[in-house]
Amino acid sequence: MRTKFIQYIVFPLVIGFLFNLSAYAQDTDLKNYRVRFGLTTVKQSDNSRVLEASFIATNKKDRKDRVPVYEADINFYNVTETEDILLGTTKTDKEGTAQLTVPANQAYVTDADGFINLKAVFDGTDGLDSEEAELAVKDVFLELNLKEIDSVKTVILNAYTLDSLNTKIPLEDTEISFTVGGFIKNLPIQKGTVEDGQLQFKFPENISGDKNGNIDVIASIVDSDEFGNVIQKKNINWGTNKIIEVESNKLWSRVAPIWMYIVLSILLLGVWANYAYSIVNLLKMKNEGKELE
């Protein structure tokens, strides 16, 4: 009896388990995934530059199945005609992202057209092939000035690049987005194109600030083919601040809202009406009892 139980019940379960395990192994095989390795850069307001490499494996059939490559060593280079200058090495996090912040005083080597050639490299392991991604950007400088001109709050942006002699070359035909820093999301306030290295506009009224009225005004170049991402910001006391006075918590006050008086009056009227109705009926019953006697 026990032999038959193993033969007809346990054995098929074991076979099914091994089959599912084999199918799972096939699904998670790296051959079923396409590795995506990319490089982006953001120049920050302090002129430091963040290099970010993204290392993600995506299922070829189900693109929603994304597996970040964790703890992978990524090397970042400044590529020149003669050598690759190592800028730093960092590991990918649980999101498959590796970030390196290069200080503002980094002396990049540029090519003949003034581009900084950057490269991120993963050297590979026994289970993963080597990967690399390249990016070329020009170093652009944004100077943000916030002034009151004739009592008008004015935003002035100067934008330029530097040539080999550190001479300022005014930026042309480049779109700049202006936002105000927010708690959850930045608030867009203006978008324009730099002409002859400058862009100027009137700051809008009634922009909320913090409790002291301070706000962050942010100028950004976003996903430019020539400059990548560039951010510049300044803090200024141009925001409005609405102060709400809140009384201390208490269960009573000298004057209640009108709706409370109305509701209370209706309830009291209903109670007294019920009393009056009951008294009238009791008197009627008493009189009818006397008549019957």
Structure, explained:
By secondary structure, the chain is α+β, with helices and mostly antiparallel strands. The chain has two domains: 29-138, Immunoglobulin-like (Sandwich); 140-236, Immunoglobulins (Immunoglobulin-like, Sandwich). 21% of the residues lie in helices and 43% in strands. It is built from two helices and 16 strands. The chain has helices at residues 2-27, 258-292; strands at residues 33-43, 49-59, 66-68, 73-79, 84-91, 97-102, 115-122, 131-138, 140-149, 152-162, 168-170, 174-180, 187-194, 198-202, 215-224, 228-236. The strands form three sheets. Strands 1, 2, 3, 6, 12, 13, 15 and 16 form an eight-stranded mixed beta sheet that branches. A four-stranded antiparallel beta sheet has the order 5-4-7-8, with no helix packed on it. It is elongated.
What name does the CATH topology of the largest domain carry? Immunoglobulin-like
Tell me the β content.
35-45%
Radius of gyration, whole Å: 36 Å
Morphology: elongated
Number of domains: 2
Which whole number gives the mean pLDDT? 85
For this structure, what is the CATH class of the largest domain? Mainly Beta
Task: Tell me which CATH architecture of the largest domain applies here.
Answer: Sandwich
Show unreliable segments. 1-27
Number of strands: 16
Ends: how far apart? 94 Å
Output the structural class: alpha+beta
Order of helices and strands: HEEEEEEEEEEEEEEEEH
Count helical runs: 2
Taking the sheet with the most strands, its summary is: 8 strands, mixed
What portion of residues is helical? 10-25%
